Amino acid sequence: xSNENESGKPTAGPWFRDKYGHVVDGExxxxxxxxxxxxxxxxxxxxxxxxxxxxLAASSHALLSALEDLMRIVDNSGDEQYVTIQLTxxxxxxxxxxxxxxxxxxx
Length: 107
Fold this sequence. Notes:
Elements: E1 16-17, E2 23-24, H1 36-41, H2 44-58, H3 60-75, H4 89-102
Antiparallel strand pairs: 1-2
Helix pairs in contact: 3-4
């Protein structure tokens, strides 16, 4: 798991907050986000990764909302062990939009 990423994809997860409040990967390395120091580094791989990480972080509220909607449906359906639910298009649209936003495919 490396912070060097030439494909413009976010740093592989999971991500954590260390005891100092920094966002780090599973190895404890800082996650790069878009900022002055990243832009000034001049490293295209580092910048592409930082842009992808920032896009992913900015989509966190939409992802959380979609997951909360799913869990609300599950919680209202009865026994979690044997849940059978029917998801409607009203659920899929926000979930797909959140995923697309997290991947940087839409705003």
